[in-house]
Design brief:
Number of domains: 1
Order of helices and strands: EEEEEEH
Shape: globular
Strand order of the largest sheet: 1-2-6-5-4-3
Structural class: mainly beta
Helix content: under 10%
CATH architecture: Sandwich
CATH class: Mainly Beta
Oligomer: single chain
Largest sheet: 6 strands, antiparallel
Length: 92
């Protein structure tokens, strides 16, 4: 499936008890470590901050991210979704 024509669907965040987060509508992941995860979504760049963050599942074809850890904040920037982040570079 062509990346430009792929429809990622709705963008949603499901945060459970500040310990489990599911994000849909993910276009790509820019960077991640135990304190910060930066993803590009259909609604802009999303920065997730916390401690002991661990990505359980990433499915860029379906546009879904599942992570756990102590989540302290979720913030958006107005940057549009950009193709060519971490996973796009990794799987060329």
């Amino acid at each position: 499936m062509n990346e430009e024509t792929r429809n990622l669907g709705a963008h949603n965040l499901i945060l459970e008890e500040r310990g489990h987060l599911t994000v849909t509508g993910v276009a790509d992941i820019d960077s991640f470590d135990e304190e910060t995860v930066v993803v590009y979504t259909e609604m802009g760049e999303l920065t997730i901050r916390g401690s002991e963050l661990h990505i359980n599942k990433i499915d860029v074809e379906a546009g879904e991210l599942n992570l756990e850890g102590e989540i302290d904040s979720l913030s958006y920037s107005d940057q549009p979704a950009v193709r060519g982040g971490f996973f796009a570079r990794m799987f060329r």
